[in-house]
Amino acid sequence: MMRLALGEARRAAEKGEVPVGAVVARGTEIIASAHNERETTNDPTAHAELLALRRAAGFLDGWRLTGCTLYATLEPCPMCAGALHAARIGRLVYAAPDPKAGAAGSLYDLPSDARLNHVFPTERGLLEAEAASLLRTFFKERRNRRKQASQPREHHNG
């Protein structure tokens, strides 16, 4: 399932989106998949996890995803971790941690916060190196493009 999520992340990168992919599965059955679409849709909430949850709920004709697992290539942010909680997801599996925005173990740990009315198990680090490499490459290329765009061009008179 994580390999499918990585495929979604690659599709995001091809579209200039931050390469994050997500898959919702029930056992071995794939219910939904998605990748980031914030740039494409100009929607700040168009994260891979949210899109996959919406599609899964639509497919299952219900918002409770209790028997499902969400596989994500990056640790969910607070918004996405909150959505997983709201969807009553059964389990979360993610590849790479997000030390700047992670809400499933890095900065916060919403999945295991017993103060909430739903907690769910989380598995961290599945295919982490592959997911992290995809993100590093994407951001390195983006920085290089910005650097080249900001350099003055030489003008030849003649």
Describe the fold and architecture.
- By secondary structure, the protein is an alpha/beta fold.
- The protein contains 5 helices and 5 strands, in the order αββααβαββα.
- It has a 5-stranded mixed sheet with strand order 2-1-3-4-5.
- α4 links the parallel β3 (69-74) and β4.
- The protein is globular and about 60 Å long.
Task: Kindly name the structural category.
Answer: alpha/beta
H/E element sequence: HEEHHEHEEH
Low-confidence stretches: none
The helix fraction, in percent, is 25-40%
Tell how many strands the DSSP assignment holds. Answer: 5
| Apparent shape | globular
- What summary fits the major beta sheet? 5 strands, mixed
From the structure above, extract its key features.
single chain; 5 helices; 18% strand; 158 residues; alpha/beta; five-stranded mixed beta sheet
Structure described in brief:
The chain is an alpha/beta fold. It has helices spanning 2-14, 38-41, 48-60, 78-86, 128-150; strands spanning 21-26, 29-35, 69-74, 91-96, 122-124. It contains five helices and five strands.
